[in-house]
Amino acid sequence: MDIVVCIKRVPAFGAQVPLTDDGSSVDTRHLGFTIGPHEECAVEEAVRLTTAHGGRVTVLTVGPQEADEQLRYALAMGAHRGVLVDTGTTELDPEATATAVLAGLTDEPEPDLLLFGDASADAGHGQVGVRVALARGLPVVGGITGLEADGGDPAEGGGAAWLRASRDTPDGTEVFRLPLPTAVAVKEGLNLPRYPTLPGRLKAKKAALRTVACAPERGGLRTHGLRRPADDRAGAIALGRGADAAPAVVDVLAELGKV
Amino acid sequence: MQLIVVADAATAPELAAVARSVAGRDDAVEAVTFAGAGFPAADLARELGGHGVSRLHVVRHELLGDYAPEAWGSALATVIDRLGPSGVLAPATHRGTEVLTHAAARAGLPLATNCVRLAGDGGSVDDGSGDGGSGDGVWRVTRTRSGGVLLEDAELAAPVKLVTVAAAVEIPGVPVQAADCEVVESAVDVPPELGRTRVAERVASETGLSLSTAPVVVSGGRGVGGADGFAVLEQLAERLGGVVGCSRVATNNGWRPHRDQVGLTGTKIAADLYIACGISGATQHWVGCMDSAVILAINTDPEAPMMQRATYAVEGDVHEVLPAVLEEIRRRGESAVAARADRHATEEAAPAGSSSAASSAAPSAG
Ligand SMILES: Cc1cc2nc3c(=O)[nH]c(=O)nc-3n(C[C@H](O)[C@H](O)[C@H](O)COP(=O)(O)OP(=O)(O)OC[C@H]3O[C@@H](n4cnc5c(N)ncnc54)[C@H](O)[C@@H]3O)c2cc1C
Ligand SMILES: Nc1ncnc2c1ncn2[C@@H]1O[C@H](COP(=O)(O)O)[C@@H](O)[C@H]1O
């Protein structure tokens, strides 16, 4: 089963999100970068599926050249190839990002499965997977936390013909039976992603990546700036230290009617 | 022109009010629903009418009777093409977002998801905020990013504006006039192959307390130290009628299943009481618990962001504090029982107003 996984380079911030002075974007000068947890699970799932059923995992990212760091992380997890669609930035609207992903897929062989995160960790539009799938004429479902190959016999080299994809909704679990090729957008909880091994990292460091240049036309959603919401929480009330704080804690619980 | 909401009875009041606030004076607010053959639309229409929706478009096709993202999205794209509304609003639930994204992709339109503020271009409605309309065919929207740590101000420029509206939306105080909601039946073609993304099976969820609805969540992070360390959190959760939650570190270490994870990529909760044990309070965790009414942080590090942002803070080792809290609850329970027994005894012996030592030792224990 050949699989393409789309991953995005996002800033990894901690307790505060630094913004640039003009408020146009996150100030990333002192931040590291990562891929979102949903996409990490997508990479892990792709590696597991190809380990079980054969095939290759290609990871694709749209962004600046530095996004090779995220491709290499995925390669260290076990992906086989990396494609960098160089747009110089990840700050694109979802229509433009989808156009760039499609440009990266143009010269690739048709994959059996196209995996996305349910939403990117920073912008969180929840759109790119659906836009790409539709342009490629593929079925797509999102929010998936269970994925299982179904119907093919890997021993005969046939691979899977279907995928069982399930997701949790407020009312219960919905199961889809998708014919391959298909696209799927997954969520964290699908699996527990592995940490790359040191030899894996070293090998990934040297791997050749395919780079595609792309300058997609912008879409109709135009970001003007970012800001932090007003935080009207007063500072915390200290209830004490260690075991001595227990009576004060239980007073609070009693006041809230919990004990 | 009209604005269309994709709503059910539960989300209609908010969406209709938001739609009214961005609609021009002469624009109608209408609704669309997807249905198979048998769906009786009259009840929904009456409900929507109460929120000022003047027309309900019932889009029928055999592939639309049960939820099917591609089929619903395709049907919505057809409706958009037929009616040419100025905008379409759906709730920012997974389903609302999915249907609107499919419709947007098919119609070749942009979409703004997770919006908490909208301003139309009509300018005819003054909500008192002073930023009425621009009249330039562009909507100003504010959407949340990274789970709500950031707000993004953006512009939506398109012939039809597609928006999903977050539950936290600001609802401008625009008067809503109840309307007689007319039911308009409309048949659509749905390409038969779109049946491929129909739900094939459904498994009902277990009943009982879940992380998203529990009134109390006792949550643990790296500071809990390991899977076994959660036993004391389980005990407290049970005592308080709640459930156990966790941070992503606990999930990633395999200490807890992912369904317990609170945060950006876990569950977003709004409990009466959230107890964060050994959790530092990274933004990606914070966005999952910040809507809780009261937050109690227990942490060895008084400088941890969670200790600053919480309502109450206890500095200390979770494995010293929680057993002491459980012991204190038990002690007060016992002394309350003792006090009651004592009172009975005193009442029987001498009905005088002599209060016992035990009952005064049980302050405000409920
Ligand atoms: C895109 C993205 C999405 C993410 N999504 C989520 C998410 O959904 N949920 C989530 O939780 N995280 C999420 N994270 C991870 C998040 O950034 C933090 O890494 C994580 O929340 C930290 O978990 P923690 O607080 O348990 O661990 P730490 O940050 O290591 O904090 C441990 C805390 O425990 C305290 N401590 C240590 N020992 C004790 C003790 N004995 N008693 C009491 N306190 C003690 C320490 O002082 C410290 O404050 C996400 C990250 C990214 C990049
Ligand atoms: N810059 C990007 N490069 C590669 N894939 C992306 C990019 N942006 C978004 N995606 C993919 O599309 C999914 C949804 O993104 P979004 O629509 O931004 O929420 C992500 O989880 C990724 O799988």
UniProtKB/TrEMBL annotation, chain B:
Q: A single Pfam family, by name?
A: ETF
Domain of life of the organism encoding this protein: Bacteria
Essential cofactor(s): FAD
Looking at the record, the residues that make up the Electron transfer flavoprotein alpha subunit C-terminal domain are 211-289
**Location of the Electron transfer flavoprotein alpha/beta-subunit N-terminal domain:** 15-188
UniProt feature, compositional bias: Basic and acidic residues: 336-347
Q: Where is the composition biased (Low complexity)?
A: 349-366
SUPFAM superfamilies, alphabetically?
Answer: Adenine nucleotide alpha hydrolases-like (SSF52402), DHS-like NAD/FAD-binding domain (SSF52467)
The family database entries (InterPro entries) matched by this protein are listed as: DHS-like_NAD/FAD-binding_dom (IPR029035), ETF_a/b_N (IPR014730), ETF_a/FixB (IPR001308), ETF_asu_C (IPR014731), Rossmann-like_a/b/a_fold (IPR014729)
Start and end residues of each stretch annotated as Disordered: 336-366
What function is annotated for this protein? Answer: The electron transfer flavoprotein serves as a specific electron acceptor for other dehydrogenases. It transfers the electrons to the main respiratory chain via ETF-ubiquinone oxidoreductase (ETF dehydrogenase).
Family that this chain belongs to: Belongs to the ETF alpha-subunit/FixB family.
What is the protein's quaternary organization?
Answer: Heterodimer of an alpha and a beta subunit.
Q: What PANTHER family does this protein's entry cite?
A: ELECTRON TRANSFER FLAVOPROTEIN ALPHA, ELECTRON TRANSFER FLAVOPROTEIN SUBUNIT ALPHA, MITOCHONDRIAL
The protein here is known as Electron transfer flavoprotein subunit alpha/FixB family protein
What is the species of this protein?
Prauserella alba
